[in-house]
Structure formats: structure tokens, C-alpha cells
Amino acid sequence: MEFFGQQLVNGLTLGSVYALIALGYTLIYGVLQLLNFAHGDVYMVGAFIGFFVMIGLGGPAAPMVPVWLMIVAMFLAAMLGSGILGVLIEQFAYRPLRNSPRIAPLISALGVSLFLQNAVLLLFGPRIRDYATTEYIPIGSGFSIGSIRLDPMRILVVVLSVILMFVLVRLVNRTRFGRGMRAVAFDREAAVMMGIDVNRVVVLTFFCASALAGAAGVMVGLVFFNVSNFMGFLAGLKGFTAAVVGGIGSVGGAMVGGLLIGLLEAFATGYLSANRPTRSPSSL
Amino acid sequence: MSGDDSSDGASVDGAPVDGAPITGSDAISGDPGSGPETLAVSALNIGTDEWVAQHETRTSTGHGVGARVNALWMSGPAAVRWGLPLLVFVLFPVLVSDGYLLRIGVNLGLFALLALGLNVVIGYAGLLDLGFVAFYGCGAYAYALLSSDKLGVHLPTWLSVPAAVLFTALIGLLVSLPSRRLSGDYLAIVTLFFGQIFTELVLAGDAVSLPGASDPVDITGGANGISGVSGWSVFGFSFNTNRSYYYLVLFFVVVLVLGLGRISRSRMGRAWRAIGEDPLAAASMTIRVNRLKLLAFVVGAGIAGLSGTIFSAVQVGVYASSFDLPMLILLYAAVILGGSGSLPGTLIGAAIMSVLPEVLRQPTYSELLFFVGLVAGVLWILKPKIGALVLAATVAVGFAINIVLLAVGVPYLSAAEWTQGVIGELLGRWLFVPQDRLLWGNVAFVLLIIAVAAFSRMHGRAKMWFLPLLLWLSVFVWMVRLSTEASLTRQLVIGATLVVLMIARPQGIFGKQRVEVL
Amino acid sequence: MSSPQASSPTRLLELSQLNMSFGGLRSLQDLDLWVDEGEVVSVIGPNGAGKTTLFNVITGIYRPTSGDVRFDGSSLVGANPTDVASRGIARTFQTVRLFLNMSVRDNVMAATFGQTRAGLWRSALGTPGARREEREVRARAEELLSFFGTRLMGYRWDQPAYSLSYANRRRLEIARAMATGAKMLLLDEPAAGMNPSETHEITELVGRLRDERGYTIMVIEHDMHVVEGVSDRVIALDHGVKIADGLFDEVAAHPEVVEAYLGRGTAGTK
């Protein structure tokens, strides 16, 4: 039971992260019918930005600002940086291909993915970076329900994801931008004729999607510590699975799919390969 | 698409076209549309159709040296166009005795085989198979298991190779069965997962709990792979040199090119292309869409499996890392670079994509390639006079930056510390290489990306003024940082090439421009 | 190809009590209709009347919710589009669906798939049988293209289909349907988007398809001049229900048809 509970917590944490990534895939797919294979790498870059903000603020051992402020700064910087990266990718790698055959943007996306992975490798080296969260959040902190321990970072991740998703849903359903987005998703040409600035909608969509991925990157760093330039591909793949499981293009589906994949992975790794410690959730 | 020609009237259209021989021998019924009203415009002897059809020729005919060479080449008889390269490839091992070069030749051949297989799936049938490399792996592992000490099995080649190929084709069938109703993006997703699952299975296959066995059994060797795979041996001839494998691979490439060329022009090829164009219309025209999709998958998988068996034998071992995503991207790059759907395009794409990484591995060659490419590119795209000016300006920019950085007092490396070869002699006097190559290189790399982005947004004269700076920056980044990181540079170059290629020429070098209804 | 005119008309296509619903929407309701061999039957009706749905049901794109479609003595229910085409019903599409990047000749040759046999191996090896088949199919395609006069002849054979004008695309689509070896052609708005002289030509073409080639034809058409010109019989649909069936003049004067086209109220005044 204890093991089950712990895996449930793990699954929810992982699931939140996947859901955020899946949302990005879904948003972009919904608006442009494009499988953005570089999305996982945007997430990876987000994790790196978070890491370097932490280092810039004094590092895990001796932060110069209060810990909560540091974490807020990490999230904000990662979201902003990833968002801008996403917009740039759209501008330079996808926009010129809007009217090309379907396969062109896919290949371009693979190219961007390869480029980002190796650019990060070039700039920061192959060393795996450690968020070392335990240095500033004591291991014993948080609280327990029965024998199940809920550490503060896991709670933060789940709560923050829920908030972000809530904001996104409001954005899509209640704002002018959201209306534009749904209109473009429904019929791009008709949207143009209705006076909707499609490019603006696409840029904002990429920004939101990528910012969510950036946040997910920091979350993974905080909970599972390790970030490397290759973490994007597999996480992207799983977020992508989540998006597909939930029905690609559907916002609610992406959330459900993300949670499902997260839980599935936590229990699968927990029960099936307990004798294979190398395959811990952190290998995502 | 129909927008530009829908206004075409019957009158223009119905006018007899001069110089268009009517070759049908059957009685041709009178043209019902050419009433008196058409006579008025029959002086127009070019139909709109013709005009549209010539579009590509009109727009893409260059005046440079390249276009002329190409025209000359294409005017030659097919026998020469295919025979001459073949002759070169047949003679290659005779002229070259360097084992390394021969090995590159073998890899090129393997790559060509794979590209030919992938071309069937994506080029003909238009199925986006992102798990293709896993089929290559299946073939390699199947062969390795049947001809190594891993399971203690050493089947003769005439058994093990067909078995491995059939096994791979079967896997191809199994993967495509559930996805036969899928198309486009969804197929891509399913196959991508298959590729991932394959890698995971192979990596986890070193501890498989079999029913009846108490301890986990090691089948695939996990991350260590399988070593000691025996080579091919046919009719008493053992393949054990790179040269022998080179000819083996060449043989298969020739056989496949001949076979696939015929298939492409046959009813099967037409049906595949029809499915790629419009599955519903194809189904309504008596084409068995699902069955042919499966067939394309199976044929592609089979070819990949065959290449896998050879790969495994040449390498004397198999490792999961050979069948990962970068390999897939490289393969796609090859097929798409050449122009998917075109056999010569696929072969040339494969040649570029398998030789390029090797060239980039050698600093001297990669430098040479970089500078030749840079200068040629500038002269090719710009008018010669402006191109020369830009290059001169780049040289000037280099010296100017030299002076500034020296004046500021940045520690630098003397030319002898970093140059090599002929180009190095010249470069050493011009390029400033700071001592801290890592830092300066990284900063310059980021700046270069920003500069390229900015450059693509500029227009007219600003572009010309900016170009020398951009060129200098790219030389700086290349020499200071990238040339020391061969494998990384390779991936970066391939990634960037894919993006640029898609934007500049999505149909590939040899592909025909395609029209797609969105 | 069957003889142009059967001595005594036989029912080639017969639909009985056909229903097709999508969720709650009943696109076709208890439809009974038939087409005799050698007949040209037009299907008319306002937009949304279920005309294209009817074609999609007959050609196996949709499976009817209930009812039967019999063609040439056997049921087509459950057959997929390929089977339907192989059994002798070929169609064109309202939005022309050619294989745009294939040559004009290849478009037509591709449709002979169901009548040819050479598989992968025989094609790859280029066996005499495969080559003979290829030659025959090629000649057949060229002969079919010649049916359209000079419009799809000569240099155009080797050009990609996307280079054709709109009218020629429609013609090529008909040629492609003919190449399937079908007995019956379903033409979905063959004259849509054509100018008057092209429309006139299509009218003649449909007649020639029946008279010279012996096809049984079902046409969806909005242009009443075309309908009048080509039809042996006209069937009018409205909201998935057959409201009239008969000669053009009868159907055109039928009060329900007038009502369907012009709206309620007008019918009474006429």
C-alpha cells in the first residue's frame, strides 16, 4: 500500500509534467496541424534556463535570495525563454513552410530538434546538470499522509500545473486571443477572411505552448534533479503520446492523457522492473 | 491550385495545338467544342495547360555553370547516365586500397540500400514511417542472433539471411497491420513509437525472464550488443574483407535499382503513387489501398532487414546505438535531399549524407569543404562581381577585427598552434583565434544564430552590407569552435541543412516540384 | 465492353429501402430507385438533399444504415470502394480528385489496377507477361484519352495532371473512371464550374458515353440544361427523400420539386 501510494504520487507528478508538454503539442497541432517534434527540446532548454538562473542566483548551496523567490525566478525565466525560443522556431523554421507539402514542416521540425540538442551540447557540454534541490529544500520537509510522504516540490509541481492549465483553459475559452485561436484551428482561411491576424495567433500559440514546456522543464529539474541535452526527445515523445491518447487537438484530452501516461509509467517502472533500478522515472 | 488556370476557356483550350502530334491511331471523333466561336482565338497556339506545365522550367532554369552541366548530363542517353557512375563505383576498390575509404564505400552502399527501401515507403506510397531504422535493427539483430555465439547458433548464410529478411518483413507487416487505416501524422506517431520500443526492447533484452528458466536470459546483450558475428559466406566464398562486402553491397544496390525502377513504372508503382496522392480516389479506382500500403511497408522493411544483415556482418557485431533517432534523421535527410520518389535522387542523397559526415570527421577535409562551400555558395548565388566584392569585404572585416581585438588585448593563439594544411597557412595570417576558444566560440555561435536570423529578415542593400560580417562570423565560429567538435558539428550541420532545405527546396535536389491540395 | 444497347432493359442498379443516417441526421430515407442498363439517370435536388451521400453509399464509402443496394444481381452492401469499383461502378468526385503529380497517362493507367495481374516480382523482373500487360494497358489508356478529342492528346499524356485546366481535369477524371473497366459511371456534377460552351460539350459527352461506349450513367447535376440534355430519366431528392422520378418534363413540373427548389408558397401559386 505504501509502495502503491508513493507510485501514485510519482505518477501524478510525472503526469502533470507530461500534461504540460502534451498541452503544447495539442495547442500547436490544433492551430497549425503541425507535429512540432522540436517541442521536447524546447522543454529541455527550459530546464537549462531554470538551472542557469539558479546558478546565477548563487547556486543550490548558497542562494542569494529567498528560496521561494529563486524558484519563482527560475520558472519565470524558463517560461519566458522557452516561449521566445518557440516563437523564434516558428518564425524561422515553420512559417516559411505554411503552404508546403505536409511532410516539409515535419522534416524541418526534426532538423530543429537535432539542431537544438546539439547546440545545447556545444554550449554547455555533455555534463549532466544537477538541480540539487535537496540542498535548499530539506529532505524531510513536507508532510505525510499515513506512510506516504508528500515532499513540497511534488506538491508544488502538481499545484502549479493545475494553475497553469486552468489559466490556459481560461485563455482559450474566455479571451479574444482564445477565440482567434479556436477560429484559426477550425478554418484558417475563413479566419483570415474574418479579419483575424493569423500570424499573431500562431505566434501567441507558440509562445504559450513553449512557455508551458519551459515550466515543465524546471519542474522535472526540481523533482528529479538531473537535466541533460538529450532529455527532451524522450519526454517530448511521452508528452506527445499523452496528446495522442487524449486526442490530439483537444486541450482537456491532453491533460487526461498526460496524467494517464504519467501514472502508467510510474506504476510500470515501479512494479514491472523493480529489479532494474536504472529505469527510474528520472530517466525521462 | 486551380485558381491560376480555372479561367481557362474551352475556346482557348480547344484550339488545335501546333507541334503536338496526335498519336492515337484510333479514329478520333470530331472535337465537339470547336464551333465557330473558337476560330477567333485559334491563333493562340499555346494552351493554358502548356503554360502551366512549363512553369517549373521557366522558373528554375538557371544560367550558371551548374545548370549548363546539368543540361548536358541530362541530354545524354540513359545508359551513359547510369553506366558511367556505375563504372566509377565498380572500379573504386581497384583504384583505392585504403581500408578506411573502402569502409566508407561499404557504408555508402548500405546507406543507399536503406534509402532505396525508405523511398518505397515514403517516396512512392507516401507513408510517413518514422520507425524505419528499427527494421534495419531487426535485420541486424536477427542475423547476429543466427550467426554468432550469443545463442550458439551459426546458420549458413543462405538460411540466416533469408530468415532475417523474412523476420524483418514480418515485423513490418505486424507494425503496419494496426496502422493500415492510419495515414499521415498518426502513422508517423505509431511508427515513431515502434522505433522507440525497438530500442527499449533491445536494451532490456539482456535479462529476459523466460517461462521455465529460473534466471533471466540474455538475448540481445543489452547495451553491450552482440559481438563476434560471423560474416557472409555464399557458395564457399567467405566475405571477410571490406572489398568483398563493397561488391556485395554494390550488387544489391544495382539489383534493387533495376528492380525498383521497373516496379516504379509498373502497375504497382503507379498504384503506390496514386495512394500517396489521394487514398480515397485510389480506392475508388480499383486500387487495393490497404493491401498496397502493407506491401510498401513490408518491402521497405525487407530491404532494411537485408541491409541490416550486411551491416551486422561487416561490423562483426551489432549495437542498439546504431539504430537511433539521429540515424533516422540522416536517412530521411538522404531521401528528401535527393528528392523523394526519384531513384537517382535517392542514391545521390544517400551518397551525400553518408560521405558528408565522414568528411566532416576529418578537420582538414571539413575545413576545406567549409571554405570551398562558402566561396562557391557566395559566387553561385550572387552575381560574380558582387560576390567578389563581398568576399573582399569579408577579408577586410577579418583584418579590422584582428586589429580591434589585438588593441583590446585579448589573449590569442599563434597561428602555428591551430592551423594545419594549406588553408591554415593563409588563414593563420587573417583569422584571430583567441586562447579561450570555448568561451569565445560559444558566444560567437550564439551571435551567429542571431545574425543569421537577422539576416533573413533584411532586405536589399542592408543585406549586402551585413553579409561580410556574417561570413566572417561563420568562419570564426567554424574555426574556433566547431572544427574541434566533429561529431557535434555534423549533427548541427545536418539539422540546419534540413531546415534550410525544406524552406528553399522542399522537393529535394532532384525531385520534381509537387502540387498538393491542402 | 457490353453492347451499346441491351435489347430489353434490365435493372442494373437497384436500391431498396435505403437509409443512411449520421447520428440523428437522416441523409437518405427509405430510398427506392433503380437504373436500367444503358440508361442515363440524373439526380437533382437542392443542396443538402443527399445526392453526394447517395453516391458515397453506392460506391461503398459509407455503409448504409439499412436497406440494400443491388448491382448486376448481387448486393453491394458492405463492399469497400475498391470492391465496388472492381465490380463495375466507377465515379468522379464533386471536387475533382486526380492524382495531381502523376502524368495524365499514368492517371488513367493507374485505374486499370483491378484488371491487371502482374505483382511485385513479375513487375520487378519484367517478365514477358508483365510487359505485355503493360503495353496493353498503355494502349488502352491512350485510346480512352482519345475519346475526348484533341483535348487530352499528344504532349499532354506526359504532363502532370496538375498542369491541366479545370475542364480538362474533369475530362481526365472521366477517362480515369472509364479505365476501371466499369459498366456504370457515377458523375458528380461534371459540369460544375464550367463555362457555357464547356457545359454544352459535357452534355454531348455524356450522350456519347452511353451511345458509343454503352455505359449506364448516373449524374448529379445542378445545371438544368445539362439535366434536360442528357437524361433518359430524372430523380429528384429533397432531404434524403425521393420526391419525383420520371421524364425530365414530368419531374420539372412536379409540384414538390418546384417547391423544393423555390420554397413553400411558390408551389401553390404555380
Commentary on this structure:
The complex is a heterotrimer of chains A (284), B (518) and C (270). By secondary structure, chain A is mostly helical. Helix content of chain A is 71%, strand content 4%. In chain A, the strands form 2 sheets. In chain A, strands 1-4 form a two-stranded antiparallel ribbon. Chain A starts with a helix and ends in a 12-residue tail after the last helix. Chain B has helices spanning 10-14, 36-39, 48-53, 55-60, 65-75, 78-95, 99-124, 132-146, 157-179, 184-204, 242-265, 267-277, 279-284, 289-315, 325-338, 343-361, 363-381, 384-408, 415-418, 421-430, 437-457, 460-480, 486-504; strands at residues 147-148, 153-154, 226-227, 233-234, 237-238, 317-318. Helix content of chain C is 39%, strand content 23%. In chain C, a hairpin with a 2-residue loop joins strand 9 and strand 10 (241-246). In chain C, helix 5 (128-146) packs across helix 6 (166-179). The radius of gyration of chain C is 19 Å and the shape is globular. At the B-C interface, helix 1, helix 3, helix 11, helix 12 and helix 13 of B face helix 2, helix 3, helix 4, helix 5 and helix 6 of C.
